[in-house]
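Record 1 of the preview.
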Amino acid sequence: MFLTHLAIGSILFMLGAALGSFLNVVISRSLAKESWIWGRSHCDECQKQISWYDNIPLLSYLILKAKCRHCHKPIALTHPVVEFLVGSLFVWWYISISFIFTLTQHPFVILQPLFWLTVGMVLVAIFVYDMLYSQILVLPVAFLMILTVIYRFALVGFGIMQIHDLVLAGLGMILSVSFIWGIRKTAWLIYKKEAMGDGDVILMAPLAMLMGWPSVLVGLYLSFVLGGVVGMVLILGKKKHLKSTIPFGPFLILGTFISLVWGDNLITWYLSLL
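->
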């Protein structure tokens, strides 16, 4: 049984790493304004076409010693990192099927794990792109919003989610988006400088719908705490100064992840202190 799970996990990791390689294409070509679908992969530096044997997820990076075969310029570390993250996401998804994805009603016994796997891949792409280029990709955010709304309405339609929970999730989305927008505007009025971008505002919408109410409060709070801690560490390490800005999208995503996994426990713990 262990060997069977190990084999399945290994296959899923390789499949996830391959999809992570595609996410790298999406990230790099979005910046270059190129098509995600058409055209062969090429080196970002010398523009030479990459052969299939130099495009094997993770393995090619190690064999080439992190350098392009043609120009010998370094290959960005983000390539193997994204491939590893998505591969690990697939393994985590497989392990979690039995104790996290608990819906047994058809078709959600299949749709629930597929939905969260897709959400995870989209969030990885948004996270990495914002971390690298301080910009939120609009199309993945729009796709995430549409997918989440359809999924939530489907849950209500099959009687798995109550309509009032959907309404509360919508209200939580409006409040959290308004809160982010308000901070952005206030910072501009006081300091004549944007504390957050438009992308952070629109990203908050699907994240709030994913978390629901009141978990969105936990996710939003943790996002600011994580962002503040990292910002302080960067300032103390002289990597940033007080007027510097750092991408906030990754912290929104991290806060969302923690809230989705431990949000209910954190709320119960906090209420027990009152």
